[in-house]
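ugh ok fine here u go
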Amino acid sequence: MHEDWWQQHLKQVGAFIKEQRRLAELSQREFARSVNLSDTYMSQLERGMHEPSIRVLRAIADGLNLSAEQLITFAAGIGGQPEPAGPATTEGAIKADPRLSVAQKQALLGVLRSYLTGTEPDLATVSAPSPAATTAAAAPAAASPANGTTSPA
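structure:
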């Protein structure tokens, strides 16, 4: 009975690691190499086929910007899923929200990242519209289509 629970738990740990890796937009191969693990071993971990060591869990936590202590506690079966390390962020909240599917999380993170990497205009180089452009833009609004008359601009 305990053995069945443990195997199921290892699958949950693997699924969590896989979800966090995907949210980080890393392929399994890229991530495995970044944390100094083989592609095969990473695949087996994500499928719950191996029990990772403390060293492996620390490397995975560092690679995914998670708290190593929380990931180790979760993997040991004595704690909940870890939160991202450091201060709370919008990205962390999206990743942690259990109501969202992986696809929804990826879409929201993509939008967030596009906003964060966008450049804001340099207000010193933005010029005000010319008076002619302002008058031309206001002219259509001054006409009253109901009675064909125009009001003074």
